[in-house]
Specification:
By secondary structure, the chain is of the alpha/beta class. The protein has eight helices and 15 strands. It has helices at about 50-60, 80-90, 100-110, 110-120, 210-225, 240-265, 270-275, 290-315, and strands at about 5, 10, 15, 30-35, 40, 65-70, 95-100, 135-140, 155-160, 170-175, 180-185, 190, 200, 225-230, 235. A seven-stranded mixed beta sheet has the order 2-3-4-5-6-7-8. Strands 1-15-14-11-10-9 form a six-stranded mixed beta sheet. Helix 5 (about 210-225) runs antiparallel to helix 6 and helix 6 packs across helix 7.
């Protein structure tokens, strides 16, 4: 399978490990650069900013020529570091902007509920999400192009792919009517394996919507991207392997939801639902590069949150900390 998880340059695309949760191969961000202009895609948490900026410099990308960042969505582990990044970059490049849609902006500027819920699952690893002033943002409508033109003729389109969250987008590099690269974020699942491509859900509460999620997978598949970037972790190459990953995740998500409903009808306790759906995760979280102890805690908390997210979407549970985004 064509799954690439090594940090480095791949043409004009740079794969960067944020070292989130003090572990490698957990969260990836990307940068597109034509050698003059560069655009970052996601940042991770506020604790990841140093690692990301150091990686850019190490790969020869000038921070003075970093036009900005385009976000997949507002969650702490992807857009959460935007405030810290803005503070660092505004004095390096006065034209640096956070390119995103109005929903993401609203959630970044009102992040307290989200942070409270995130801390119950991930503790202090969530970092901070300070208020970001309006001047930091450049609002882009869903499915519109960013106002940045690269010397190779490429442009970035903010493809709307809701489901994981209502604001979720998959920034895509379009050149000569070809989709060179799509940063799918969490729109087609995540990959925590390093020996084969097997996906896991991204059904984080409270805003996960199953039907939108399934539609977004089809939207990305129909774009026929040549390379697909994942938030967690790495990138996929080749039409065959990209389609396999999307199709496998489509099947898995239907099985996951059906198994949750069946288990809940037997016994509505969360413990029972987790026990009865555990078999579905077999082989889907094997990653030899993650620390065993940290990995065990992280994946246990993650599975609980993702299961709860499906239950909220089904109306079997209510959100605890964060209100649903309209």
């Amino acid at each position: 399978m064509a799954l690439e998880q090594r940090e480095g340059r791949y043409g004009n695309i740079y794969l960067i490990d944020t070292m989130q949760f003090n572990s490698n191969n957990v969260t990836s961000v990307f940068c597109y650069s034509d050698g003059k202009k560069s655009l970052l895609m996601d940042i991770g948490t506020s604790n990841c900013v140093d690692a990301v900026l150091n990686s850019l410099v190490r790969h020869g990308i000038s921070l003075e020529n970093l036009e900005g960042i385009v976000l997949s969505h507002y969650h702490f582990d992807h857009g959460g570091g935007s405030s810290e990044l803005w503070k660092r970059m505004k004095d390096i490049n006065k034209n640096f902007r956070i390119y995103t849609n109005s929903i993401t902006k609203k959630n970044l500027q009102n992040a307290e509920g989200h942070l409270t819920g995130a801390r119950t699952t991930f503790g202090n690893f969530v970092g901070t999400m300070d208020y970001i002033p309006d001047e930091a943002f450049h609002i882009v409508e869903f499915d519109d192009f960013l106002p940045i033109e690269f010397s190779d003729g490429a442009r970035i389109k903010l493809i709307h792919t809701p489901g994981h969250s209502p604001d979720h987008c998959s920034p895509s590099v379009i050149c000569n009517d070809r989709t060179i690269f799509t940063f799918a974020g969490e729109a087609i699942g995540t990959v925590y394996t390093d020996d084969r491509i097997l996906s896991t859900p991204t059904s984080m509460p409270p805003n996960f919507k199953f039907d939108d999620y399934i539609s977004s997978m089809g939207k990305i598949k129909n774009m026929k991207p040549e390379i697909v970037g994942l938030c967690h972790f790495g990138m996929l190459t080749g039409e065959k392997d990209i389609n396999f990953t999307i199709d496998d995740h489509f099947d898995f998500m239907h099985k996951f939801r059906d198994a949750i409903v069946k288990a809940f009808n037997e016994n509505p306790s969360t413990e029972h639902v987790l026990l009865k759906t555990e078999y579905l995760w077999e082989g889907r979280t094997k990653n030899n590069s993650m620390d065993d102890k940290g990995k065990e805690v992280f994946l246990k908390n993650l599975r609980l949150a993702l299961t709860y997210g499906v239950m909220v979407d089904l109306g079997l549970r209510k959100p605890k900390y964060e209100s649903k985004t309209l």
